């Protein structure tokens, strides 16, 4: 009896496999062929975006979104081949989409944030930005996340929703930036002489822009010294190197002319205690 049972079970299993075999094979072929086609389409898309000189941030976003959509269509096609009715599949997909949407509200917000970033362009790939207490260069803008590389080599990944809802300080959107230097000299120094020395120091480097012209101001007369402000304009990508160079050049020029940065001093005097009266 047991032997007869297993023989019948074997026959039914073989019949089942034989009945679904062609369908399963078709679905498998469709899956493999679909993956192959998607890879080709992605290469074609990359070449197209490269030829059209598409902005890097938009390029990465479109590639990510296209990959997501193509694989969604592929899995839907495989499901239909396996016998899932279109209406049932749409209903199932819709229900799953609602469930996933409720579970991934943050991801949907990040997707919307990515669209806003691409639409209004507060920054692009390659820009130096300061956002959410992070300063770095934008490396990539995906459909959900923005990746920023800091100056010390860290890669910070931020949700697009947070970035889109934050104040973004883009420090390379404009072609030029102003280098501001503040320093102090003694109250008895000649202001015109100081301005001439500092102006000469600022113009030493050839990368300092001639327009707008550098300028030097007496910013404040303080209790112990004079506060001087010197400003010059440079290309945005050269801001930090030029800041350090200008600071060093001004310090050396002041030292060469014997002008020192004053240090506040205080004099403290002690009263001599009065002698105790003798009895």
Give a short synopsis of this structure.
The chain is of the alpha+beta class. It is 52% helix and 19% strand.
Task: Please provide a written account of the structure.
Residues 65-105 form the Mechanosensitive ion channel transmembrane helices 2/3 domain. Pfam families: MS_channel_1st (PF21088), MS_channel_1st_1 (PF05552), MS_channel_2nd (PF00924), MS_channel_3rd (PF21082). This is Mechanosensitive ion channel protein MscS. Keywords: Cell membrane, Membrane, Transmembrane, Transmembrane helix. The protein is α+β, with helices and mostly antiparallel strands and 279 residues long. It folds into 3 domains: 19-103, Helix Hairpins, CATH 1.10.287; 114-170, SH3 type barrels, CATH 2.30.30.60; 176-256, Alpha-Beta Plaits (2-Layer Sandwich). The protein contains 7 helices and 8 strands, in the order ααααββββαββαββα. The strands form 2 sheets. A 5-stranded antiparallel sheet has the order 4-3-2-1-5. A 3-stranded antiparallel sheet has the order 6-8-7, covered by helices on one side. A hairpin with a 3-residue loop joins strand 2 (134-141) and strand 3. It is elongated.
Helical amount among residues, as a percent range? 40-55%
User: What is the level 1 CATH name of the largest domain?
Assistant: Mainly Alpha
Q: How much strand content do the residues show?
A: 15-25%
Average of the residue pLDDT scores: 81
Subcellular location: Cell membrane
Protein name: Mechanosensitive ion channel protein MscS
GO molecular function, one term: mechanosensitive monoatomic ion channel activity
Membrane topology: Multi-pass membrane protein
């Amino acid at each position: 009896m047991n032997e007869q049972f297993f023989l019948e079970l074997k026959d039914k299993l073989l019949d089942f496999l034989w009945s679904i075999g062609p369908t399963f094979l078709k679905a498998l072929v469709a899956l493999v062929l679909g993956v192959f086609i998607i890879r080709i389409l992605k290469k074609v898309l990359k070449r197209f975006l490269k030829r059209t000189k598409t902005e890097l941030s938009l390029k990465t976003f479109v590639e990510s979104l296209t990959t997501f959509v193509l694989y969604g269509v592929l899995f839907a096609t495989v499901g239909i081949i396996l016998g899932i009715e279109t209406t049932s599949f749409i209903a199932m997909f819709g229900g799953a989409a609602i469930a996933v949407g409720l579970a991934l509200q943050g991801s949907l917000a990040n997707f919307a944030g990515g669209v806003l970033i691409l639409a209004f362009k507060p920054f692009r790939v390659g820009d130096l930005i300061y956002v959410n207490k992070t300063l770095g260069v934008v490396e990539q803008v995906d459909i959900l996340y923005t990746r920023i590389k800091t100056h010390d080599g860290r890669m910070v990944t931020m949700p697009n929703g947070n970035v889109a809802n934050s104040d973004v300080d883009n420090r390379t959107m404009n072609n030029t930036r102003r280098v501001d230097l503040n320093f102090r000299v003694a109250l008895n120094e000649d202001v015109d002489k100081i301005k001439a020395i500092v102006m000469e120091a600022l113009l030493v480097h050839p990368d300092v822009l001639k327009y707008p012209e550098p300028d030097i101001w007496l910013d404040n007369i303080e209790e112990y010294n004079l506060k001087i402000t010197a400003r010059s304009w440079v290309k945005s990508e050269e801001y930090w190197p030029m800041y350090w160079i200008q600071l060093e050049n001004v310090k050396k020029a002041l030292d060469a002319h014997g002008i020192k940065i004053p240090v506040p001093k205080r004099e403290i005097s002690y009263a001599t205690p009065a002698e105790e009266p003798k009895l």
